[in-house]
Amino acid sequence: MRIILSILLFFQLSFSQTEQYTILISFDGFRWDYLNRGLTPNIDQLKSNGVYAESLEPVFPTKTFPNHYSIVTGLYPDNHGIILNEFRDPVTNAKYIIWDSSVVTNPKWYKGESIWENAKKQNVITASYFWPGSEIKDVKRQPNYFEKYNHNLPYDKRIEGVLNWLQLPFSERPKIVAMYFDATDSKGHRFGPNSKELNSAIQQLDSVIGKIVSGLEKLNLLSKTNIIITTDHGMTELSIERIVKINELVSAETFIEWSEPIMFVWPLEGKIEEVYSQLKSKESHFKTYKANEMISEFNFGKSNLLPPIMLVADLGWMLSTHEPTERELQRFYPGNHGFKHTEKDMHGIFVAAGPSFKKNFKTKILRTIDIYPLLCKINNLIPSKNIDGDLSKIDFITIGKK
Ligand code: AMP
Ligand code: ZN
Ligand code: ZN
Question: pTM of whole model > 0.85?
Answer without folding.
Answer: yes
